Amino acid sequence: MSWQGGPQYYQDPNQQYYGGGQPQGGYYPPQGGGYGYPPQGYPPQGQGYPQPGGYPQPGGYPQPGGYPQDGYPSAPQPGFIQPPPAGGNYGGYEDPEGQPKNFSFDDQSIRKGFIRKVYMILMGQLLVTFGFVALFVFHKPTQHFVQRNPALFWVALAVLLVTMIAMACCEGVRRKTPMNFIFLTLFTLAESFLLGVSASRYESQEVLMAVGITAAVCLALTLFAMQTKYDFTMCGGVLLVAMVVFLIFGIVAIFVPGKIMTLVYASCGALLFSIYLVYDTQLMMGGEHKYSISPEEYIFAALNLYLDIVNIFMYILTIIGAARD
Questions:
Q1: Are 135 and 242 members of one domain?
Q2: What is the mean pLDDT of residues 131-154?
């Protein structure tokens, strides 16, 4: 059937024709919209089929995924951002509620940045320390100056103990910048001075040999800690017991001097701190290991590795010196 008096004809899904006149022998849509049409009237030509909720803008009805809700296909709009799937990745910045995502230490980027920062700090400490060692070993006036001023040794020892205890026991000291770097710098200078004074008692060839052996041992242990499947982070209690026994053995060695006692004590110390180096390296790496250090503890991680390397050097130097005497 058709409408009379209408210049245009539109066909609905039920094959009924409507125009501007009155229907003949049929029915017509109610006023104010009907059959899915809005109150404002029929759509102009070229703007698509009417949709629930209003007419689409030219170019298609923008819906997630490029389709309207009722299933009618339409072209996706330029610049329309597709929402991520449920439970998907939001780029690492926001969760589905719009809150900032809390990064964990398991994230690869955070772990790499943390390790890189720790090793940069450690390299700076080692450069300063072995610079002091070279100065005390190869520059005789410096050795004579320290020998004439023994009070410097005790001042450096006091600074060493205070800064080390503060960084180990006070979380705010080792986490708050720039306080953590100030304490770490004072500790490194004090330790470097004491290590230089101790190394000046040995020959330059012995010191160079100890430096080379220490570098090779530390590199091998670091690579081992990164590649091995054994989790040394679970050995913290065993290492603590071994350290207590080692300290008692050191006190006994003071009252029982001798070349053999020195060699045994130094060998045990080098072995113990070698295991500590593997333990602290795996704590820094995190990942699949049971225990790990927080990314905010980069000062504490660098301090642990530095002390391990310095102790390995001192005990290797002691072994070399006792073997040559």
A1: yes
A2: 91
